[in-house]
Structure formats: structure tokens, C-alpha cells
Amino acid sequence: SSAASDVYKRQFNVFFQGNGKTHRFIGGVASNFLPGSSQGAMGNVLTNYNDRWTPENPSEDVFYPRLSYGANTNNSQNSTWWLRNMSMLRLKNIEVGYSFSKKTLLPNFIQSARIFIAGSNLLQFSKFKMWDPELDTPNGQCYPITKSVSLGLNVSF
After folding, report:
1. Structural Rg of the chain based on CA atoms
2. Of 13, 41, 53, 87, which is least packed with CB atoms within 10 Å of its CB?
3. Are β-strands 9-19 and 88-99 bridged in parallel, bridged antiparallel, or unpaired?
């Protein structure tokens, strides 16, 4: 048993969480998602507001349909135009730790010691980039999932 107390241990734990074949309609009539749809009274204007159809830019490969100032229900009806792939893979938890051997400690004073670093929600892989695809929202107006990092030391006397 004294040989067992002289052993040190390295630990590495990782947990991924994800989903596939997940789609969601973004926008919608009541979401104030389209720039100008509430005449500037509500909602956020996203940085991609220029990525829209115009007579000068009649491309079908744009983010927004033809925008207008004020309500235009033709632009905000659920259709495949607004259907987005929300599949994702998230590094949910990761922990790296090291338990010191009894030889490296003060054997008459410290029984065990371990140092570690842990993190939550540090990485996410998804084709959808506007907001966290795990949030159940059509317009991104929710608190995002928080990231955290912890550093710890466990000592037993």
C-alpha cells in the first residue's frame, strides 16, 4: 500500500455534446428580426443588413429578402428562405488534472494534493454563426450560454 501512495496520476476528461439534422426557422412576423420592420422602434440591426436583395443587387444568394421600411409580411413568413441548419458540436466540459505522488509532498504533513484546470462551453462548431444555435430563439435575443474556466488546488492534511 505504500507503493500505491507513491503513485502520481495525470487526468484528462473531455465531454462533447451536439446535435445533427437540426433546423430552425429564424425571423418571423413577431420577432423584429428584419431591419426596419418596426420603423426603427424595436429590434436590433445586425451587421449584415446590406446583404439583401435590391434592384441593383438582384442576387438570390443574399441573407435578407427585399427589405422595406415598416411592416411587410411577405418578408417575414416562414419559408425555406429562413430555415437554417442548427446542427452543432460543443466542447461542453474539459478538465486536466495532476495528482502529486506522496514522495513529492511533505509526507508527515500533506496526505494528498491535486491541481487542475477545468472549462465549460469553450468551443463550438456550427455552420450557423449569427448566435448560439442551441438557444431556442428565432431572433437571437436570449442570454448566451456562458463560458467558464476554473483553476483549482485540492490539498488534504
Report:
1. 25
2. 41
3. antiparallel
What are 24-71's pLDDT values in tens digits?
988 765 556 666 555 555 555 667 777 888 888 888 888 877 776 666
pTM (predicted TM-score): 0.70
8 Å CB contact between 135 and 145: yes
d(C-alpha 92, C-alpha 87), whole Å: 15
> What number of CA atoms fall less than 13 Å from residue 23's CA on the CB side?
9
| CA distance linking residue 148 with residue 143, whole number of Å | 15
Secondary structure letter of residue 95 according to DSSP: E
**Cβ count near 113 (within 10 Å):** 19
* Separation CA 134–CA 57 (nearest Å): 33
Number of CB atoms found within 10 A of residue 132's CB: 18
Which residues, other chains included, contact 111 with Cβ-Cβ below 8 Å and sequence gap of 6+? 102, 105, 156, 157
Q: Where are the beta strands (DSSP E) in the chain?
A: 9-19, 23-25, 83-85, 88-99, 112-126, 148-156
Beta bridge partners of 23: 85
Query: What are the phi and psi torsion angles at 91 (to 5°)?
Result: -80, 95
Joined grid coordinates for residue 72: 411587410
> What is the rounded average pLDDT of the residues 100-106?
76
